[in-house]
Amino acid sequence: MSASRLLAALGLAAAVAACTNTPSGRSQLLLVSDSQMNQMGATAFAQMKANDKLSVVPEKSVYAQCIVNALVAELPDEWRRLQWEAQAFAIAEPNAFALPGGKVGINTGLLRVATDQDQLAAVLAHEVAHVTYRHAGERVSQQQLAQTGMALANAYAGRNASPNETKLLMAAMGAGVQVGVLLPFSRAHESEADIAGQALMARAGFDPAAAVTLWQNMREASGKQGRPPQILSTHPDPGRRIEALQANVSKLQPVVQQARAAGKRPSCRG
Questions:
Q1: 79, 132 contact by CB (below 8 A)
Q2: Which pLDDT score, from 0 to 100, does residue 167 have?
Q3: H-only helix segments in the chain
Q4: Among 143, 145, 238, 241, which residue's Cα sits nearest to residue 192?
Q5: What is the pLDDT of residue 162?
Q6: CA 257, CA 270: separation in Å to the nearest integer?
Q7: Which pTM value belongs to this model?
Q8: Which of 235, 99, 243 is nearest to 171 (CA)?
Q9: In the prediction, which pLDDT does 187 show?
Q10: Which CB contacts under 8 angstroms, 24+ apart, belong to 56-61?
Q11: Residues labelled as active-site residues
Q12: What confidence category does residue 222 fall into, taking pLDDT thresholds of 50, 70 and 90?
């Protein structure tokens, strides 16, 4: 297909695609369905488990799964119905991700920064929010429209994806660090996931103030390495990120108190 015809086809697809709003009310264009994204996420996760180094300490995966279960219990039915699965990878880089389809991964290096269940819940709630806000589908759609991610169309069937296609789709879904290719979420996505994730962890009975501590720890851990100016980064500035999360703590205290009064007191141990 010629470039002009491809652009016309993409424009037509964009015109007829469902325009939706995120739970926060932001307009969102999606050219792929949830079922397609779920299949892509499951395929990518299976390949990561087959190719990456898994943690040899089962308790670390159990720890993450315990927190994920507590968070997922607070989601709407459409998300609770997914087969949520958590896996720890023996990778030193402090990182975590959640893929469409309910597949969650943590690097064991994250546990040096997220030092208790509430801090880890802050990370995982943030990643779960990326899924429930359909950020990956939005990114894949943007890639299609920009013609930089058209190979993803061949990967929708999942099992037929080539290694290069798998790397691209994992990068597009936010797991690029695992495969050496990083296409990070946008600043809007990250800020959205911060606020939604902090609210989610509070509803599950985790301390929302731990989100502030977690990002303070992250900033301290990465301080020696430096970071680009905010305008050059798709991630929010750490200071502003911490300020935004701190501003929400008092608002979320009644939420966590109500959750705990209802018996929601997570007890997850690593």
A1: yes
A2: 57
A3: 3-16, 34-51, 58-72, 77-80, 117-132, 135-145, 163-172, 187-203, 210-222, 238-261
A4: 241
A5: 57
A6: 24
A7: 0.80
A8: 99
A9: 79
A10: 56/90, 57/88, 57/108, 59/269, 59/270, 60/88, 60/106, 60/108, 60/111, 60/270, 61/86, 61/87, 61/88
A11: 127
A12: confident
